[in-house]
Design a protein that fits this description.
The protein is α/β, with parallel strands linked by helices and 278 residues long. The chain is built from 11 helices and 9 strands. It has a 9-stranded mixed beta sheet with strand order 2-1-3-4-5-6-7-8-9, with helices on both faces. β1, α3 and β2 form a beta-alpha-beta unit. The protein is globular, with a radius of gyration of 17 Å. It starts with a helix and ends with a strand.
Length: 278
């Protein structure tokens, strides 16, 4: 595990491409269908609006099939999943697979409770483009011991990296691990995105909103790996800037949305490291 980080060669991931992808997102304003948890719905929608995407939260089982076919991207977040929600999520994922609508799975608290873990396992069979979670969630999804504590991770993102690489290879999905350093891998290439600020862990919904932003980038980037990397880099840059001007979690939330709307700025984006040897 340590060797992966130590032997990673510096790979210049063009910041210009991230800026270009963000400009394309704002031009297209991709319709991003978010089936997410009730705690973060408003914040998630505001994050997407601040960046320039078009959020929609359609959760009725009678409409979900039709809307997934209309949408340009889909997020499924199992944070407050109910039996009804599970039916909607499974139907949405099946439709996305059939319609080739790219989608992101956020397996919130997977491994903690049997019901949601079973739903996540079924959802993965529907081929998400990206699986995004904290280290414990990714470890649990991969069948490892995640040491999960509720929705928070008790493992580091670096600890989960080897398992994430194997999970990406097994599922065909890009796996994005959120943490002090975000790691994103397709099973061959590993991207690391440092940055952000500790205060982001004290605001409900930042991780969940990141999953939605990854989804919004899927229609406008070359690969799911680039979509997840661009979203993580933009989040880190906005988080760092917002932390400098905020006085606490409340003012941070408003400043974070402002900073998302102010980007792009090549100088603001964090330095990215990569390796092609997993």
């Amino acid at each position: 595990m340590k060797g992966l980080e130590e032997t990673a060669t510096r790979m210049v991931w063009p910041h210009a491409e991230i800026v270009e992808s963000l400009a394309k997102l704002r031009q297209i304003s991709p319709l991003t269908h978010c089936i997410t948890n009730i705690v973060v719905t408003n914040f998630t929608a505001n994050v997407l609006l601040a960046v320039g995407a078009s959020p929609a939260m359609i959760v009725t089982i009678e409409e979900v099939d039709e809307f997934v076919r209309i949408a340009q991207a889909l997020l499924i977040n199992v944070g407050t999943v109910t039996r009804h929600d599970a039916e909607v999520m499974l139907k949405a994922a099946a439709t996305a697979q059939e319609a080739r609508t790219p989608w992101v799975l956020d397996p919130v608290a997977a491994g903690v409770l049997e019901f949601r873990t079973k739903i996540v396992t079924e959802l993965i069979r529907r081929k998400p483009a990206v699986i995004r979670g904290n280290a414990s969630e990714i470890l649990s999804v991969a069948g490892a011991v995640g040491r999960a504590k509720g929705v928070d991770s008790t493992a580091s993102s670096l600890e989960a990296l080897p398992v994430a690489s194997a999970l990406a290879t097994d599922t065909g999905a890009v796996v994005a691990i959120s943490g002090e350093v975000d790691y994103i891998t397709d099973g061959e290439t590993i991207m690391s995105v440092p940055g952000g600020d500790e205060i982001m862990t004290r605001v409900t919904g930042t991780g969940c909103a990141l999953g939605a932003l990854i989804a919004a980038f899927l229609p406008v980037t070359r690969t799911p790996l680039m979509a997840a990397t661009a979203a993580s880099a933009i989040f880190a840059a906005a988080g760092e800037r917002a932390a400098r001007e905020s006085r606490g979690p409340g003012s941070f939330s408003a400043a974070f949305l402002d900073q998302l709307s102010f980007l792009p700025d090549k100088q603001a984006l964090p330095s990215l490291a990569g390796s092609t040897t997993c």
